[in-house]
TrEMBL record:
A GO-annotated cellular component: efflux pump complex
Gene Ontology MF terms: efflux transmembrane transporter activity
Family per record: Belongs to the membrane fusion protein (MFP) (TC 8.A.1) family.
Taxonomic source organism: Desulfosporosinus meridiei (strain ATCC BAA-275 / DSM 13257 / KCTC 12902 / NCIMB 13706 / S10)
Protein's name in the database: RND family efflux transporter, MFP subunit
Signal peptide: 1-21
Length: 369
């Protein structure tokens, strides 16, 4: 009997162990643990742009200096190579005739103003006389002919006054024109810079619109380069860039200043201008210089198109973070039929799921195969 009870007890313990060993794996809260989805990943790498773009140094600010009026040159205060500041007197024309014109027009204006005052006094007197005569005529003291006579004088006074006033704008305009001619005889620098061209000398005649001097501001210069279509997305306004010039053992710091929205129809490249500080006065207009896209953006990440998920016209990838798939939005530019450049959204060494299946969603656990 005892042996039988012992056998039953051992059998019961064995069954308990078997059932326990076959139990479903649970979390600490007692709920079933989620099954990790097996995925294949690749680490985000990078590729070197390895693109050098060359172009010519061009001026940023340049001014052709010319006269607004014709006149004989009496002074030229600069020569080629001189540094000038904005507002410096560069060229002086003979202003004798213009000065006399100012005196004459000022005198005419003063005379006209006196005439206006006098005709106004006469008008006021004629108006008073008319009002008095009208009252007397209505009382029968004076005949109608007297009223008609003073009325004629009133109209004459009104006409004289209006005529004098009408001449005032023209006289003031004539004076302003004469004064402007005197001012225009003195020609000043429109900007800070260097005189690079001098085409006039004392004793010669200046003509309106004909260049006399050229002034260039070389404190900052521009480098214009042509960027191919497959590289233009790497170039952004305000991006710092290193500039190199053959024959000059010096690196210059520049900034992307302008990116043309329209390509050059002759070669399908996009004109880009780089602003360069030139306070050292080393750079010259026409020099050949180059920039490297590597110095601009470093290295560019690439991902296969098979890793891209498109939703609502936006692009995403699944990034594995601590065995969890995270849906991350990315900004892309096409490289070729199989690969995309990644502009924003991922970093080097991020693990990205390749060929994500429909069962993969944001936040699920994954197991990297």
């Amino acid at each position: 009997m005892i042996n039988r009870l012992l056998a039953i007890t051992l059998l019961s313990s064995t069954l308990t162990l078997i059932v326990t060993g076959c139990a479903v794996k649970t979390t600490s809260s007692g709920t079933p643990a989620p099954t990790a989805i097996p995925v294949k990943v690749m680490k985000v790498g990078s590729t070197t742009n390895n693109a050098n773009l060359s172009g010519k140094i061009i001026v940023d600010q340049q001014a052709k200096v010319f006269s607004k009026v014709a006149g004989k040159v009496t002074e030229v205060n600069v020569k080629e190579g001189d540094l000038v500041n904005k507002g410096d007197l560069l060229v002086q024309l003979d202003a004798f005739d213009s000065g006399n014109k100012v005196i004459q027009t000022q005198s005419s204006l003063d005379t006209l103003k006196q005439t206006i005052v006098q005709t106004k006094i006469a008008l006021d007197y004629a108006q008073t006389n008319y009002d008095r005569t009208k009252a007397l005529a209505e009382a029968g003291v004076v005949p109608q002919s007297d009223l008609d006579a003073v009325n004629t004088k009133l109209k004459t006074a009104e006409a004289a006054y209006e005529q004098a006033k009408a001449g005032l704008p023209g006289a003031e305009a004539s004076l302003a024109l004469a004064q402007s001619a005197v001012q225009d005889a003195s020609i000043y620098s429109p900007l800070n810079g260097t005189v690079t061209e001098k085409l006039i000398n004392p004793g010669e005649m200046a003509s309106p619109g004909v260049s006399m001097l050229t002034i260039v501001n070389m404190q900052e210069v521009l480098l214009q380069v042509s960027v191919p279509q497959d590289k233009i997305f790497q170039v952004k306004p305000g991006t710092p860039v290193e500039v190199f010039v053959d024959g000059i053992d010096q690196k210059f710091n520049g900034t992307i200043d302008f990116i043309s929205p329209v390509s050059d129809s002759t070669n399908n490249t996009f004109p880009v201008k780089v602003r360069i500080d030139n306070t050292s006065a080393v750079l010259r207009v026409g020099m050949i210089a180059r920039i490297s896209l590597d110095s601009m953006n470093g290295k560019i990440s690439e991902l296969p198109k098979s890793s891209i998920v498109e939703q609502d016209q936006k692009y995403y990838v699944y990034k594995v973070d601590k065995d969890v798939a995270r849906l991350v939005q990315v900004e892309l530019k096409e490289k070729d039929s199989n690969w995309n450049y990644v502009i924003n959204g991922v970093a080097n060494n991020d693990e990205i799921v390749i060929n994500p299946g429909s069962q993969l969603t944001d936040g699920v656990k994954v197991q990297i195969n």
